[in-house]
Each structure stands twice: as C-alpha cells, then as structure tokens.
Amino acid sequence: MSRFRPIDRETDYLLPPSVQDWLPESHLARYVVDVVEGLDLSELERAYTGRGSEAYHPALLLSLLIYGYATGTHSSRKIERATYDSLAFRFIACDQHPDHDTLSHFRRRFGEHFAAIFVQVLQVARENQLSRFGTVSLDGTKMHANASRHSALSYGHAEKIEAQLKAEVQEMLALAEAADQSMVPEGVSLPDEIQRREDRLAAIARAKTAIQARAKERDAHAQAAYQAQLAQREARQKASGKKPGGKPPTPPQTGPRADDQFNLTDAESRIMKVAGGGFEQCYNAQAVVDSESMLILLPHLTQAGNDKEQIEPALAALQALPENLNHPQRLLADTGYFSEKNVEACHAAAIEPLIAVGRDAHHPDWRERFEEPAPRSLPAHRVEQMKHRLKTQAGRAAYALRKQTVEPVFGIIKSVMGFRQFLLRGLAHAGNEWTLVCLAWNLKRMAVLRPRSVQMA
Fold it and tell me: What does DSSP say about strands 330-333 and 352-355: parallel, antiparallel, or unpaired?
C-alpha cells in the first residue's frame, strides 16, 4: 500500500514565529535588505513630514521594488499581492502589506533619487572588491514605451484629419440650428458629437504644436551643420587655391515633415526600429557595463534611435562619478558608436577607445585569427591607431569581451527579469525606472559575486 505525507492545514505555526527563520541565509531577498539598509537614505527620510499616520520606511519600500524588479515582479499591484503570497516578499516587508498606491507613489515620487542610490550600491561593490571597473562596454537596446505606435499621429495625417473634423463640426452645427431635425440619425446627440470632435481637434492642435517645436529645434541643428560644412569647404578652397571637388552641401529642408510623428499616449517616446524588423514606440536604453563583473556602471535613457551621439554623454556621466568609479581605462563599443569625433572624445577623457569601424566578415580564414598586422612606422591619426589596435591579437581579444558582457546583461534583463516595457511614461520617469531596473540587476549580480563562504553560510 502506498504511503503519503499527511495533508494537514489546521496545525498552528505553519511558519516559524520569527521572519529571520523564513529564508536561507544566502537568499537574494536577504542580500537586498542587507545592502539597502546599509545605504544612506536620509534624504528620502527627510521628505516625510511626520504628520498623519505612520509611514512605511523608505528602506522597506525600496527593497520591495528592487527585489520585485530583480525577480520579474514590476507592477505595484503584483508586489502588493506578493507580500501575501511570497515568503521572500513577506520577509522584506516584515509581514506587513504596503498597498499598491503606496508603492507606485514611492516609485514616482523618489525616482530622481534612484541615481544617487545606484552610485552608493556601486561603491559597495567597489569596497567589497567585486570589480575594478577597468574595461567597460557601452551598448543600447530598444525598450518598449508604455504607449502603442498606433497612438502616434503624423503631421501629414494630422492636417488631413483636422480638415475632416472641422468640416464635420460645421455640418453638425448647421444641423443643430436647423428647424428640421429629420436629417439627424435617431439616437445621435449633436452636442455630444460636436464636443467629441472638438476634443480631438484640441489634441491634434497640441500634437501639431509639439511637432513644429521639434522641427524648429531640428532645423537649428541642421542649419548649424550646414554652415560648418560650408566653412570647411571654403577653408579647403583657400588652402589649396582650387575649387573643391564634389557637390556642394545641400541646404537643409526646414519646417515639419509629413512623416514627423507625435504619440498621444507618451509624447516623449519615439518610433524606433527594433531587432527582428519592424518599428515600435520605444526608448533607447543605454548601459555602460563592466567587462570583469558584468555590473552596470552607468544607466542612461535617450529618445534618439541612433547610438552615434551617446558616447559623449556617457563619458561626461562617467567623469561625474565618485573617485574609483569615474576612470575606466578602456571603452568597448560596436560600430553604431563609431565616428572620428567619438574617438577623439575618448582620448580627451584619457580612455582608450576600441570601437568597431565596420562589421567583420562571417567565417574568415582561420589564419586571420593568428596574424599580426605590420607595425606602424609613422605617427598615425587617432582613428588609424584604433583600427590598427583592433587588428592585433590583443585588440581582438579585448574587443571580444564586449559581446560576452553587455549583450548578456540586456538579455537577462529582458528574458529572466522579464523587463521589456516601461510602466512609467515620459522621458524623465522612464529614465528613473531604467535606473531602478539596472539597480536591481546590479544587486542580483552582486549576490552571485559574493564570496562563496558568504553564499553558503
């Protein structure tokens, strides 16, 4: 006869009486709590006035959010539910149950403080010798905004719809003033229909104004670039005494374009090309990742779909970090970041750039892996020096670290932590959420990098 364990749901003290006995010592939730409670959160604490009922401590709410994002629970409602259903969340919350409004309000209210907390956690990693932050990789990934691309309105379509709605409003106003209402379909409320169209016209007007402002800013940059090209062409002509070859630069097109778009749900997100083909409403999530530990050294969010302009902001942000974090020796990046200006910017920051200048051919001859280029006899331009370095065995080995560091981080964030779309809207709030995601990744990674003796305690 088969023997089974008894089913008994009536026994008292199903859980140990102390929350300290609920989880093993090496559990991620314990590590998150230990690190967060060791941080300086005084600035968050001072934001509470002391009036009204007792508030949940910022360390508790922050730990819940970090552990939630690290384990794929991003929604404040799901985190609230987990404080009842999950032992790890109940341990972090000390068997209390902050409601979803409290968690959501905390995430939005203190989002701008996440960057300072992120730096504190990096300092913890540095003090514990989890990384030296010597060689770093920069890359970006398209992250879906909390908006659909079907909510986007192009300037050309806006003008077309605007004309149609205005004509309908005039027609309905005429019907409303007519004595004979037989032309009005049964069940139609003309005032409601007119108001609905006027609301849409107001939304279209806001969209057109925003597109026009963007176009004006774009025109200023394009005009400056055009004038710079003219000046360079004129300087070459004066230096050589001959008319430069090639066509002269074309004056930029000004004003809004028919395909300029504005999203009615999240106006600051942009239509971007995504991996696998197609276009989606996204933000470009950037990260500087340490090649030794796979810890994220710097998170950044941008509206630009192209990565070429992201080197200089990354270098400026790196230099703004505290001592021991702000000066990596080498920066790795793919061909999307390559430009002469970016190479010079890295050298100006005393960082060696290894930026791919093109895509390598698939299945090259096996001898190429062991060949060394001939040494350069003359001083070369910075770009030529970098190209030569990338052809050496040492340079190829160093650049190979890029694919095995930053790309796996993005893959784990999307596939394991389940973060593929922002919950918050607007560039500032989405940027704060990206910092929170990267903070959760770092703590998750630091828990793995702990000394084995601590993990097995």
Answer: parallel
CA distance 65 to 59: 10
Q: What mean pLDDT do residues 310-317 have?
A: 95
> Over the stretch 255-286, which tens digit does the pLDDT of each residue have?
888 888 889 899 999 999 998 888 999 999 99
- Total number of domains in the chain: 3
Residues 322-336, mean pLDDT to the nearest whole number: 89
Same domain? For 363 and 309 the reply is: yes
Helix (H, G, I), strand (E, B) or coil at 354: strand
Structure tokens that stand for 74 in this block: 């991003």
Residue 233 lies in a domain: yes
Is the same domain home to 214 and 304?
Answer: no
Q: How does pLDDT run across 351-404, given as a tens digit for each residue? A: 999 999 877 666 666 666 667 777 776 667 888 889 888 888 888 889 989 988
Q: Which residues pair with 140 in a beta bridge?
A: 286
Q: What is the pTM of this model?
A: 0.86
253 contacts: CB under 8 Å, gap ≥ 6: none
For residue 290, the surrounding DSSP H or E stretch is: strand 279-290
Read off the tokens for 324: 């021991």
User: How high is the pLDDT of residue 179?
Assistant: 65
pLDDT in the model for residue 249: 84
The CATH number of whichever domain residue 330 belongs to comes to 3.30.420
* Contact yes or no for 219/252 (Cβ under 8 A): yes
Instruction: Please give the structure tokens belonging to residue 18.
Output: 């102390």
Query: By C-alpha distance, which of 419, 420, 424 is closest to 106?
Result: 424
Q: What torsion, rounded to 10 degrees, do the Cα atoms 339, 139, 129, 438 define?
A: 140
Whose CA is closest to 401, among 126, 130, 135? 135
Q: What is the pLDDT of residue 229?
A: 85
Type and span of the H or E element at 59 = helix 58-70
- What is the pLDDT, as a whole number, of residue 13? 62
Cα separations in angstroms, 426 against 65, 138, 313, 435, 445: 20, 24, 20, 14, 28
DSSP code of residue 397: H
Spatial separation of the C-alpha atoms in residues 425 and 410, rounded to whole Å: 21
